[in-house]
Design goal:
Rossmann fold, 31% strand, seven-stranded mixed β-sheet, 3 helices
Length: 177
């Protein structure tokens, strides 16, 4: 929610591994056109009236949205490492990636505890090195208690305007950021 203002008004947003759609509902209420992907058809069924739905198991099947790009991609509480290299290609120029999931240290306080589901220190920074990082956090969050990594990054336009008059959206961070 802190960084949704970086996505252009009315933009298209992919909520990947959306679960029951907490972020889908909020993003739609902000005026975004949302595509929600999850492998659980029962979880996403109530979202059909709000968003475009794709039921897909992205861990064992093909990427469900070939050739599609978005102004924003949101991923929370989900990690499937083979997916990470695909995400920058699914962003439009100027598109915003908002990614948050559990990190190393979580195994000491609760679930998930398997290393398959926990980011290593700096892993999001490495995975998205080709994007411009706007915000990055890696550590303990007390509310609720968990170890997380958060990354907000922007896919830079191919070329800056020659006259320099049109600055990128990611330079505008609001007062509640």
């Amino acid at each position: 929610m802190r960084f949704a203002h970086l996505i252009g008004p009315g933009g298209t947003v992919l909520d990947l591994a959306c679960g029951s759609g907490r972020h889908v509902r909020w993003l739609v209420a902000q005026g975004f056109a949302v595509t929600a992907v999850d492998r659980d058809p029962a979880a996403v069924e109530p979202l059909r009236q709000l968003a475009e739905i794709a039921v897909a198991d992205i861990e064992s099947g093909p990427w469900p949205l070939p050739g599609r790009t978005f102004d924003g991609i949101v991923v929370t509480n989900y990690l499937w490492r083979p997916l990470l290299p695909l995400l920058p290609g699914a962003l439009n120029e100027g598109g915003v990636l908002i990614y948050e999931t559990f990190a190393d240290g979580q195994q000491d306080i609760g679930k998930p505890s398997r290393s398959d589901f926990l980011l290593r220190t700096g892993e999001l920074l490495s995975a998205f090195a080709g994007l411009r990082v706007v915000a990055y956090e890696d550590g303990f969050d007390a509310h609720p208690p968990r170890f997380v990594q958060r990354l907000v990054a922007v896919k830079a336009p191919a070329a800056a305007p020659p006259d320099g008059t049109a600055g990128p959206r990611y330079g505008l961070i609001g007062p509640d950021s």
